[in-house]
Each structure stands twice: as C-alpha cells, then as structure tokens.
Amino acid sequence: TSLSLQPAITPELVQGHVHLKCTYSPPSSKPPLQYLVLWSRLSSPGKREQIHHETTLELFSYVEMDGTNLRLGDTVSCTVTAFARDTLEQQSLPEESKGFYAGIKFLPESLQIAEDDKEHILTILSTVPIACPGQDDSCNITLHLSTEDLVSQLPGPPDIVLSACQVDLLQVPCSERSCAEATVTVTAVTDFAQDGNRVSHIRAEPVGQRDLLWRAYTPKDVKVTVRDLPTGNCYSFTDPHIITFDGWRYDNYKIGTFLLCRSVSRMFEVHVRQWDCGGHRSATACNCGVAA
Predict the structure, then answer these.
(1) Rg of the chain over all Cα atoms, to the nearest angstrom
(2) Count of Cβ atoms closer than 10 Å to residue 130 Cβ
(3) CATH code for the domain of 213
(4) What φ, ψ does residue 214 adopt, rounded to 5°?
(5) Residues 110 and 210 placed together within one structural domain of the fold
(6) Residue 20: inside a domain, yes or no?
(7) pLDDT tens digits, residue range 54-80?
C-alpha cells in the first residue's frame, strides 16, 4: 500500500558542484526497508526520460547536474518505492515528487502592462545554487538583459525599457523559493503612436561563464504584452485659436504669457507667449513663443 513517503527535491552544493537531493520520510516500520529511487526529467511535454536510479537504505538520494545528463532548464522528479529488505515481493506503491525546475525563473512569468508610465517589478531568480569552484565568497552569475519587439517591422523605439542592462545573481543560502535573486523594473514606452497592442520579449543570457553548466544555458524568455493607450492633443495656433484635449474650441486675443497646460500627476507644464500682431482697427494677438 502507500506509505506516504512524500518525496521532495531540494537543491544543494556538494563539494562545489550542483546536486539535487530527493528526500522521503516513511513512518517507522518493521522490518527495515530499502528504497528504489528513480530520477527522471521531462524531455518534452508529456514525455519522461529516466536519467538515474539506485537502491539505497538511506532516506535520501543525490543526482548531480553535470550539464550532460542533467542540464539547467530541466524539470526533474524522483519516484520512490519502498520494499522489505529481505524480499522484493512486498513493495509499496511508487510515489512521485513534484517536478522541480532547475534554472533561472522570472516572477511573474509574463507581464501585461500599458503605456501609462508605471514601473513593474520583475524578479529574476535561480532555483539552484551558484557554484564557482576556486573562487572567493563573491561568487555570482551575471545575466545580460535585452528586449526584442516581436513586431519588428513597425517603426519607432522598442515598446519596453528595463532599469538595467545586466544583473548579478549573488550566491546566498537556498530558501524555499530560490538560491539567488535580483530585480529589475519594466516600463512601457509611451510612443504617442496608435500602433495597437504589441508583444515584446525579455531575454536573459549568462555572460563570462567558464562553467559548462551555465555556459550552455539560455533561460526562457519573458513575454510582455503592452496595451496601447490613446493619446491626447491640445493646440494653440495662428491668432491664437485654442483646441483643448477634450475638443473644446475658443480664442484668446490677450497679449502676455499664459499657462497652456499643466500635468496633474508630475512636474510638467507648457507656457505660451502671445504678442500684438494686429493693426490699428483690430486688436489681435499671435503666438510668438513656447516653453515646456
């Protein structure tokens, strides 16, 4: 029957190399038990590939991430079966752990933002420890960040900007969530173009790594959907006719300097200056200067 072994995978550094550890906790039982541990990874959606197996008396099993049989970007699980030490006939039902993703993750995994000047925090974390054999305590992985507009034929700037071009993931003790993490902010570019909703990707690439495990690894991109927002215009032209943001029209024949518009959310305003451009019979003012 099921023994409620509850296998779980955690990352660990063993002699400077990244390992995954499968632990399980059976209830006390007599006679003593042995355990068959099968390690496997998802080689493609719905397809599993066995990478290691062992029979052990211990309540744990290790497998090394060597960059060949087990690579960054793999989702790994372990399946544990218990059986009486003196016979193989009395076996428990096999119990499988949750899949453990080994590599770089982004939180959130995708973003939906708008051209509203807001900053959105993107967390970049490593689910495995940073291994730097032969280096001092300032061990880290440097990730180069870049953006790509998937509708590249459209003119204009990229649809998103990042607060940094690269981040360092510093070696820290592993927690339940990560073994290293950093944050950047993502902002949509307000381009004043009615170009519809556009999709961009954020890419992170490890740079300057001698370690095969990291050198051959490219994390999965982050998909960012930017929602287009309509822009408004206001005008002051000729002698001066004024059209406001909401389409209201009027004239201003006064001479002097005037406040044309002011933002209510940030320190920004536009002033216009008008001078006398009329004749003796009519008083008319015309635009002669602007300051933003």
Answers:
(1) 31
(2) 20
(3) 2.60.40.10
(4) -90, -30
(5) yes
(6) yes
(7) 999 999 999 999 888 889 999 999 999
Q: Are 48 and 104 in contact (CB under 8 A)?
A: no
More confident residue, 85 or 240: 240
Is residue 173 situated within a structural domain? yes
Question: Which one-letter DSSP state was computed for residue 68?
Answer: S
**Domain boundary pick from 227, 251, 274:** 227
| Total residue length of the chain | 292
Q: What angle do CA 246, 251, 257 make, to 5 degrees?
A: 95
Q: Which range of residues forms the domain containing residue 245?
A: 235-291
Reported as a single tens digit per residue, the pLDDT across 119-149 is: 999 999 999 998 776 665 567 889 999 998 8
- For the stretch 69-118, pLDDT in tens is 889 999 999 999 998 877 767 788 999 999 999 999 999 999 999 988 89
Same-domain pairing of 114 and 216? yes
108 prior amide bond cis, ω within 30: yes
Domain count within the chain = 3
Residue 27 has pLDDT above 90, yes or no: no
Do 42 and 123 sit in the same domain of this protein?
Answer: no
Distance of CA 25 to the CA centre of its chain: 34
Closest by CA position to 203, among listed 182, 183, 224: 224
d(CA 181, CA 167): 9
Separation of alpha carbons 33 and 83, rounded Å: 6
In a domain, 180, yes or no: yes
Q: Give the mean pLDDT of the chain.
A: 88
User: At 226, is the pLDDT very low, low, confident or very high (cuts 50, 70, 90)?
Assistant: very high
The whole-number average pLDDT for the span 144-170 is: 82
- Identify whether the C-beta of residue 55 lies closer than 8 Å to the C-beta of residue 38: no
Last residue of a domain, one of 227, 247, 278: 227
| 38 and 67 fall within a common domain | yes
